[in-house]
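Trying the structure run again after the queue cleared.
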Amino acid sequence: MRGYDKWNFPAFDKNTAYLRDAGWEVFSPAEIDREIGFDENDPDVVFTEQDFHLAMKRDYEAILKSDAIAFMPGWENSTGAKLERDFAGKLGLTMYRVDADKEYLEQELIIGLCEGCGLPVSSFLNG
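Done. Tokens:
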């Protein structure tokens, strides 16, 4: 969420609503952060390395309660999302790609790792 306007909370909110409308129970990192008092509208907010570590612990706790995880467009550029993806993969969670703007939700099928970058190479079960 770092590096995005308003920490990308509007995209999290939109995708959270999209998934809930489709019947999913959702743990949203943006909602979790708001619950502890983080204000995405505060232009002076400072997010330290310690804050990042605490956020990752909160996100890992949510992943431990989950059966699946969904990634929004741009997840590949997020340090936190890459860590969450690796953790979810180790737990055997089903992974999805979601994009509420395109009304898109597809389950991923990991078919290997990129030799140059180490990121998962994916295909889609329905596509």
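The chain has one domain: 5-124. Worth checking whether this holds up in the mutant runs.
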